[in-house]
Amino acid sequence: MVKNKYSFFFIFCISAIAFSGCKKTADNTEAYGTVKVVFKNTVKNDVLVLNTQTYTNTFNEEYTISKFKYYISNVSLSHGNYTSAENNSYHLIDAADPASQAFSFNVPASHPYQSIHFLIGVDSLRNVSGAQTGALDPVNDMFWTWNSGYIMAKLEGNSPASPALNHKIEYHIGGFSGINNVLKPVVIDLGGLNIQNGKTTEIVIEADVNAWWQDPNDLKFANTPVSAMPGELSKKYADNYRKMFTLKSITNF
Fold first, then answer.
1. How far apart are CA 92 and CA 121, in angstroms?
2. Which tens digit of pLDDT belongs to each residue from 183-220?
3. Where are the beta strands (DSSP E) in the chain?
4. Residue 67 and residue 50: Cα distance in Å, rounded?
5. Hey, where are the domains in the chain?
6. For the chain, what is the largest distance between any 2 Cα atoms, rounded to a whole number of angstroms?
7. How far apart are the first and last CA of the chain?
8. Is the pTM of this model over 0.90?
9. Lowest CB count within 10 Å: 75, 85, 166, 250, which one?
């Protein structure tokens, strides 16, 4: 009986040590790195300059830009079926505010990420969720009404080709439901991005304003100088500008 008692105690100790070892392995902290996403606004590869620089679109119409803003939301990195998403992922990129054109978040460093995903605009849930704060605060002049929701992208300026008052061009693109929904998902190939533990990886994405005017829709200032409400025209601009984003560079720090 005594022998059996000691045998049981020995087996219990061995089991406890083994269990403790497994538990320690499970509690190991996963390695993380930081991803910094930078949006670089351009016009045909030239850095966008507000107010003073004159540009020419595909239809040989000259124009200047005084305001350029757009929402980027639901940002994530993916590898196969694995996705690492940014929490509370809503950013207002404003060409007049350099600080708004970059943001950072942490991701596990154990996956070679193949692509970055994001939405141009604000998802439908946040459009109907009442008063918001931060990037989604109505004071940012990117909100219509609770029925119409957010302006997903805004571009204002002037063109001699515009028949509107003072030759203005004004595009406030919105609409989050129905056939004229302008929310556009974007996927950019990263080619197998390795994130290093405790390091920062900078992803620079170029946004070419010139994409707004063509492919698949030819949109001339002379014909459509203004689009300021949800509808078919807004969707045409969104169908064009969804292709303005391309990968510029990836740098590890």
1. 9
2. 999 999 999 899 999 999 999 999 999 999 999 999 99
3. 32-43, 46-47, 55-56, 62-79, 82-85, 90-94, 102-108, 112-120, 151-158, 168-174, 184-194, 200-208, 226-227, 245-252
4. 7
5. 1-29, 31-252
6. 103
7. 66
8. no
9. 166
Q: Identify the burial level of 19 via C-beta atoms within 10 angstroms of its C-beta, where 0-12 means exposed, 13-18 middle and 19 or more buried.
A: exposed
Q: CB–CB of 169/222 below 8 Å?
A: no
Residue 55 pairs with which residues in a beta bridge?
63
Report pLDDT digits (tens) over 106-118: 999 977 899 999 9
Return the amino acid letter for 164.
A
- Residue partners of 169: CB distance under 8 A and separation at least 6: 63, 155, 156, 157, 158, 159, 162, 221, 225, 226
The CA-atom distances, in angstroms, between 72 and each of 12, 131, 242 are: 56, 19, 11
Asked which of 4-13, 187-196, 197-206, 233-242 is least confident by mean pLDDT, the reply is: 4-13
Determine how β-strand 62-79 pairs with β-strand 55-56: antiparallel
- CA nearest neighbour of 39 among 208, 226, 219: 208
